[in-house]
Here is the input.
Amino acid sequence: MARQTPTSTKPTQEPEAPMAAFMAGSGEGIETALESQRAILDGMAEIGQEVMTFMSRRLQEDMDASQSLMTCKTPEEAFHVQRRFAETATREYFEEARKVMELAARVARDGWAPMERRTAAALKDLNGETD
Here is the structure.
């Protein structure tokens, strides 16, 4: 005797319903990705501007230090000019590295934030939760 498979009493969805849900979700996913990319591109532009401003200022300070060295009359004066230059440059480079790292961390957070929001919303939808 042939084995019978149980029939489902669960109503079937219209074929269009899953496609409509998929398309709606795809649009939200694309919007989320675009929002994320905008945040990253804006942040990278800000980092680029910060670095360019810093390098421009440092170049001017480097030229000023060279000019000061040329006016030194003794080796002691030259040593002091070089020491001040090295101390200032080192401090400023470390400070700039800190600023850029903070900016990069913020860019990463801002870039992931739309994805995190969309993922949380999708999980709520999957679990049948409402606000």
